[in-house]
Automatic annotation (TrEMBL):
GO terms for cellular component: membrane. This is Amino acid permease. Keywords: Membrane, Transmembrane, Transmembrane helix, Transport. The keyword Membrane applies. It comes from Akanthomyces muscarius.
Length: 179
């Protein structure tokens, strides 16, 4: 069973596509704040339509979850390639005119995902170890980012200007998030 930490991948994937979103500094925080309310409403209504519908919903959510994972990976690959930090950077950083997306990075991400899906792990212990490694890496990336911001706040350094801020609650929220 996947770790609950993977629920962060949905809103996290949106941040990796921020360069493609119009007025991202306002749009992304709004979407991240609204999402839990939509989920709470969905849980409160408790629809009992049947196994087939619930299975279809599960398959759809899994499919879209895979798409957001590939979208996140491809945008990260594009960003690293754009900064010349990956092999074949020129090709991976190419944005196709008219499509305005890094199609090569998306294709490579899909290929890697497909190849990884062919790995057959007979041992549940080995599978859980690999899944736990992914979970630990994801949590570590959040902790490192939040800790860097918290250190800047504690040292009295100015944070970069932004249109959306937690204001005076930012410091305590950063500290709570790291715990």
């Amino acid at each position: 069973m996947p770790s609950p930490v993977f629920t962060f991948i949905g809103p996290d994937s949106a941040t990796h596509m921020a360069e493609e979103i119009k007025d991202a500094s306002i749009t992304l925080p709004r979407a991240m704040i609204i999402m839990p309310f939509v989920q709470t409403f969905s849980i409160a209504t408790e629809p009992h339509i049947g196994t087939s519908v619930m299975t279809a919903i599960l398959i759809t959510l899994t499919t879209f979850g895979c798409i957001t994972n590939v979208a996140t990976a491809s945008r990260q690959m594009f960003a690293f390639a754009r900064d010349k930090k990956l092999p074949f950077s020129t090709s991976l950083a190419h944005v196709h005119p008219g499509w305005d997306v890094p199609l090569n990075a998306i294709a490579v991400s899909y290929c890697i995902t497909i190849l990884l899906s062919f790995i057959n792990i007979d041992s549940t212990v080995a599978f859980n170890a690999i899944a736990s490694l992914g979970t630990a890496a994801l949590i570590s990336s959040y902790i490192i980012s939040i800790t860097c911001v918290a250190i800047k706040r504690c040292c009295g350094e100015k944070l970069p200007p932004s249109r959306w801020s937690l204001g005076q609650f930012g410091g305590p929220i950063n500290m709570l998030a790291v715990l």
